[in-house]
Write a structure and sequence with these properties.
The protein is mainly α. It has one domain. 69% of the residues lie in helices and 4% in strands. Strands 1-2 form a two-stranded parallel sheet. It is globular and about 55 Å long.
Length: 275
């Protein structure tokens, strides 16, 4: 069994060490458990929710809410919002802990640190603009074709604590999705399948992760599923190109923060308020 090494002995980058067949099986089970506790579970529920929606009424006549109030009482709603975000980050803490147990530094290895703030923010802001514009196009197309529900990013009662709670939710979504779907899965894929050092093999991993990303957004309709699949492909390629997950976290945080706090204003600004 692996033991936690002193921080001075942690590796900080480069190719992962070679693993034997037993270790690869161990990592495969680990990935399965992590996904079952987090986004894999979300994908299964999203597919079921989509099937249920299709059995009830056309998607165009339905709404999909991402972040909603949990109680009519202000104090309890605030507590629920805070706890939702904190508990949702538990899988992120888990994968970081698992990598630390193997004697590596996940923060340095995945680029989940503040060593390059200027470059990370520049790339993250650029991705935010690109993905944000693409999201509006996909949403418009999906609503026009009747294959996307009307999305309500946030339906939380407005209190003084609502903006900070929604920003925390945006941070939680960005860390959960990018750390697990990109940094952790790509790292474990290289250990389970040594041939992923080949470009085409790693491309298959990028595609698989993107498909899973699209799947857990299907509760919103086919449009958001396809849009998030494309986002996963772009983010996967960026991560392989630059080796840092922080720009992806920044871009995702900005996307969700704007959606939670100003989605109606954005739709109005682009003439899409009627959707």
């Amino acid at each position: 069994m692996s033991t936690l090494m002193p921080m001075t002995e942690l590796t900080t980058g480069g190719a992962p060490p070679r693993t034997d067949a037993r270790s690869r099986r161990f990592y495969a089970w680990e990935v399965g458990i992590v996904l079952a506790l987090s986004l894999g579970r979300s994908a299964i529920y999203a597919v079921l929710q989509l099937a249920e929606r299709l059995s009830i009424a056309p998607l165009a006549e339905q709404t999909a809410t991402v972040q909603r109030s949990r109680s009519r009482a202000e104090g309890f709603d605030a507590a629920y919002q805070l706890l939702d975000s904190l508990f949702a980050l538990a899988p992120v803490a888990l994968v970081i802990y698992l990598v630390l147990l193997s004697g590596e530094n996940p923060f340095r290895r995945w680029g989940l640190d503040f060593r390059r703030p200027g470059r990370d923010w520049a790339l993250g802001a650029g991705l935010f603009g690109l993905i944000g514009a693409g999201t509006l196009v996909v949403y418009f197309a999906g609503r026009s074709l009747g294959i996307t529900a009307q999305i309500v990013p946030a339906d939380v009662t407005e209190y003084w604590w609502t903006p900070p709670a929604l920003l925390l939710a945006a941070l939680r979504h960005s860390l959960l999705e990018e750390v697990i779907m990109i940094a952790y899965l790509f790292d474990r894929a290289r250990r389970i399948w040594p041939q992923t050092t080949d470009g085409r093999a790693m491309g298959a991993v990028v595609l698989a992760a993107a498909v899973l990303r699209g799947a857990y957004h299907l509760y919103q309709g086919f449009g958001p599923g396809a849009g998030n699949l494309l986002m996963g492909l772009i983010f996967g390629w960026i991560y392989l190109r630059f080796g840092r997950v922080m720009p992806l976290v920044i871009a995702h945080f900005l996307l969700d923060a704007v959606a939670f706090l100003a989605f109606p204003l954005v739709l109005t600004s682009f003439g899409l308020a009627g959707l």
